[in-house]
Amino acid sequence: MQSLKKFDTLYFTVGRTLLGLYFIIPGASKIFDFAGTLTLMISKGVPFSSVLLPITIAVQIIGGIFLVLGKSLRVSSLLLFGLTILINIYIHDFWSVAGDPDEIQNFVKNLAIAAGLLILATKDKS
Question: Which domain holds residue 82?
């Protein structure tokens, strides 16, 4: 068992890097499709969409970069956790789209991402 522990740092680094990329890439894509994303947010009833979209982009990109770099993991993980839950509530509204398998999959996937972020928040060493 001890021989497997020598890879823990590698696993941790790869895992948090993949989580970071999960937020950086969609954050950047929102910049390039700002109007489309804003339209989606408005159609889903997200309040203050025009203010929240730039904040969402910033949190996703900066928070994702912080995860990749291993900086302020508790703060960045908790911010991204909150954002992920809000995205689930407004964009992947499980209760309204229970018949849509794609939305159910997105909802459940985001819960798993949120769980990973909570775990990562406990590993802050900065």
Answer: 2-121
